[in-house]
Amino acid sequence: MKSSSQESINKIKIFALNIRKKILDMSLIAGADSSHFGGALSIVEIVSVLFSDIMRINKENPLWEDRDRFILSKGHACLAYYAALSEIGYISNDELKTFEKNESNLLGHPVINRNLGIEFSNGSLGMGLSLGIGVCLGLKKKNMKNQVYVVLGDGECNEGSIWEGAMSASNFNLENLTVLVDHNKFQQTGSNDEIMKLDNLREKWISFGWETIEIDGHDIEKLKYFLAKDKEKKPRAIIANTIKGKGFSFSENNNSWHHAVMTKKFYDQAKEELEKNFKL
Description:
By secondary structure, the protein is α/β, with parallel strands linked by helices. It has a single domain, classed as Thiamin diphosphate (ThDP)-binding fold, Pyr/PP domains (Rossmann fold, 3-Layer(aba) Sandwich). Helices cover about 40% and strands about 10% of the residues. It has 11 helices and 7 strands. The strands form 2 sheets. A 5-stranded parallel sheet has the order 1-2-3-7-6, with helices on both faces. The protein has a two-stranded antiparallel ribbon with strand order 4-5. The relative contact order is 0.17. The model has no long low-confidence stretch (mean pLDDT about 95).
């Protein structure tokens, strides 16, 4: 298991703080276009631990054959993905400013561009797990040790393809696959309980044959520990309990921020809250 030293944890916290800053900046740049602000903020700690500490990445070569793979199945949360890719040097700060603009590589859902570290296109929900399973099978056939990490939304778990994939992954003993479910309790048009109750997600994934853990998805130390610990000979699911819109008083657990437009007033308020609440 990798060291959980305070120095390492602080490094991840700084990475996460920088991601939140970049999410804010890109949301303001998007203008009248929806940036899916809330759903990006709920996965900040998840992507920060993965990209700054857990995944094998060559910062000089996004096409490195031995790299681990990251698949953002809940593609609308791409603000966090683009910000993480920027933090490791694959996307420049200038390119971040093109978010959702004409001719940009950085659209409102990821479009495959492996030179920028974007492994797959994702927009329609329910696709990412199947993509990850295919990659895992291919890697195993090549006797390669790369790991594959897939981030799902909890609302996305309404899709039948998720459960077909869950059954397949355990059937093929894909120990090189880790799924992180962003369990923020909301989806586009309401709460999960209003639209499609998920009940006990942990028990569901266990019943499909996965090693399954449920943790606070904003607890960097716990995320780091469970992502780094030795795996069982089966796929792993981490049910990450999160807060949609995490980090800002106006957006936390406020589902309006699934689609709300960032204004200068909210931007300035958010910057003040970042300085006050995220000191290391």
